[in-house]
Specification:
The complex is a heterodimer of chains A (about 280) and B (about 300). With about 280 residues, chain A is an alpha/beta fold. Chain A has a single domain, classed as Rossmann fold (3-Layer(aba) Sandwich). In chain A, strands 2-1-3-6 form a 4-stranded parallel beta sheet, with helices on both faces. Chain A has a two-stranded antiparallel sheet with strand order 4-5. Chain B has about 300 residues and is α+β, with helices and mostly antiparallel strands. Chain B has 2 domains: about 100 residues, no CATH class; about 180 residues, Rossmann fold. Classes of the chains: A alpha/beta (about 280), B alpha+beta (about 300). At the A-B interface, helix 2 and helix 3 of A face helix 1, helix 3, strand 17 and helix 5 of B.
């Protein structure tokens, strides 16, 4: 009875997820002008409190984190049932089980996951900027196995709690799970071999688009376009403390911000995954 | 004979088989009956289903895991089937929330998701998405001596008045601290949710008041406050979207009633979208901005 019509766009923060989401929006739109970064649909955010409340008929603010987690798979099932089209949903949670029998992201409604990965040294610098915190202080965040978004239980935060774990936990949870077909994209390849990298993702999802359509969508999602739009009207997904969401997007920018000790702390903690994805060579 | 409790809330006289200490005691012939008992496992002709509810014409069934099931029918009766064999504050929380929401819609009333404050001789509802600060700004106004009529669900009746709900505001711990409210004597809404029931007895206004303003609160990730008055279709959609549990409306087949009360109401009220910075939550600045820019008391100026 279920249809596999959800595609999860999963990543640790600052790894190219939003860029790809804008690209997809442009690819699926008929408009001649670039999609507005502030019009990315709310329904595409898997931690949306509004969507959860609407679909459950309850107030998430009256529920515990565990109760919410146990209902989230059903919210996705219901969204899947109600949709005749492919649904793309951005995810920052790691992949995990909410109880013995079910994953937070149910396989029976999942067509695929695209997992975005980026050199954790650059993630660190970008994430620190995004959170308006010194890079040195963000190291513990990337290393923290219990790291989560919106996990304060004495105030109401604007999104549902999202458990991320450490950077390595996050990567492993998505790339090593075997329930949903996963295609991993390196941010560095998105920057250096944009067409090739985006085309492979489009093919993996099963969208039938021509080379020209993909190139056009890439052009409309160029960093300069997104950055200009943000300068003009702001971007609602930016954290309040940071100056801009689309900052530099540069590869290797960590070299301008991290000292040897900071670099080594990340490498020591994430060596296995960094080697596996070509970010560190023993 | 078992004791029967009678209350008045949201303009309705409510008879209950169990005590609901949140509500104000009243006497009179009841509009609504609340009973303990078994509820149907499944509704027969479901129009709309959610993860935890089923809705049909005049029937509504809600299940809250490990707490209770609620069956609401014809806007007249609610049957509560508790899991724990006792009615505690958790059972009442979802009764006074989603189950009451369905009850109001079945009666053709307009429940708006938000809190109501009395300004001058009229009512203003603060609405918006969950987490946007509806209860917080209401609690702030109460702390400044204003009166409140309702928190979380504000019901508009057919005379286009907001009817008083019950004398209680639910406030999160961080806001209690901002308002300097001592939480020692307060009860958490549930054992593991750090939101507190704050009684507002002296600042509770217990008469219906004509609704004059609806303020939709939004947030943005930049400093400063902004506002605009909404008109036309934007005004209509804004209230539609902030109807408490709007997805129930379709399920209960109440679209026509809902449309009619909205259409009657819109010419009589002003609707504003007010945008505040996401953080920090500056309640006094926010309140000043509202008082300085919007004619909340509806005095002729």
């Amino acid at each position: 009875m279920y249809k596999k019509n959800i595609i999860w766009l999963a990543s640790y923060p600052k790894s190219g997820n939003t860029w790809f989401r804008v690209f997809l929006t442009n690819l699926l739109s008929d408009s001649d002008i670039p999609a507005n970064i502030n019009d990315l649909a709310e329904a595409t955010i898997s931690s949306s409190r509004k969507i959860f409340d609407e679909y459950t008929g309850l107030s998430s603010s009256d529920l515990t984190f565990e109760e919410i987690d146990r209902m989230r798979p059903d919210v996705y099932r219901m969204q899947s049932l109600e949709s005749d089209e492919l649904l793309f949903k951005k995810v920052h949670d790691k992949f995990y089980f909410v109880d013995d029998n079910q994953a937070l992201f149910p396989d029976e409604i999942s067509k695929a996951v695209i997992y975005f990965i980026r050199n954790p040294l650059d993630v660190l610098v970008s994430f620190a900027y995004h959170s308006a915190r010194p890079a040195k202080k963000m190291i513990s965040t990337l290393n923290n196995s219990n790291y989560a978004f919106c996990d304060k239980n004495d105030k109401l935060q604007n999104q549902l709690r999202q458990i991320l774990g450490s950077w390595s936990d996050h990567v492993k949870s998505w790339t090593e799970q075997t329930m949903i077909p996963v295609h991993t994209i390196r941010y560095e390849d998105m920057v250096n071999n944009t067409f090739d990298s985006f085309s492979k993702a489009v093919k993996f999802i099963g969208l039938e688009k021509t080379e020209a359509q993909i190139k056009d969508a890439i052009g409309k999602s160029d960093f300069s376009v997104l950055s200009a739009q943000e300068k003009e009207d702001g971007f609602k997904e930016k954290m309040i403390k940071s100056k801009s969401f689309f900052r530099k997007g540069k590869i290797g920018d960590w070299q301008n911000h991290l000292d040897e000790k900071m670099k080594n702390e990340i490498i020591e903690n994430h060596m296995e995954i960094m080697v596996k994805f070509g970010y560190y060579f023993k | 004979m078992e004791k029967i409790f009678t209350y008045k809330a949201f303009g309705l006289i409510i008879k209950s088989e169990f005590e609901i200490p949140e509500l104000l005691v009243f006497e009179g012939s009841p509009d609504v009956d609340i009973k303990l008992g078994e509820v149907p496992k499944q509704l027969k002709e479901i129009t709309k289903q959610g993860v935890k509810y089923q809705a049909a014409k005049n029937e509504f069934l809600l299940e809250v895991d490990h707490i209770a099931k609620y069956y609401v029918n014809n806007g007249k009766q609610i049957i509560v089937d508790t899991v724990k064999n006792t009615v505690d504050k958790e059972v009442r929380l979802f009764l006074l929330g989603s189950a009451f929401g369905a009850l109001f819609l079945q009666r053709g009333l307009l429940p708006v998701h938000g809190s109501t404050i009395k300004f001058g001789d009229s009512a203003t509802i603060f609405t918006g998405l969950s987490g946007v600060g509806k209860s917080s700004i209401a609690a702030y106004f109460v702390s400044q001596g204003y009166n409140a009529l309702a928190d979380d669900i504000s019901v508009v009746n057919h005379n286009l008045e907001v009817v008083p709900g019950f004398p209680n505001i639910k406030i999160w711990n961080d806001v209690l601290q901002k308002l300097d409210i001592n939480k020692e004597s307060l009860a958490e809404i549930r054992p593991n949710v750090k939101k507190f029931q704050v009684p507002i007895n002296e600042n509770y206004f217990n008469e219906p008041l004509p609704l004059k303003n609806i303020i939709i609160i939004n947030t943005k990730n930049s400093p400063g406050f902004e506002y605009e008055e909404l008109t036309g279709i934007k005004k209509f959609n804004a209230i539609k979207n902030n109807t408490y549990r709007y997805r129930f409306v379709q399920g209960l087949e109440k679209q026509l009633d809902h449309f009619q009360i909205l259409n009657k109401l819109l010419p009589e009220i002003k609707v504003y979208r007010v945008i505040r910075p996401q953080a920090p939550l500056l309640l006094n600045e926010f309140a000043d901005f509202l008082l300085n820019n919007i004619n909340l008391s509806n005095l002729d100026v």
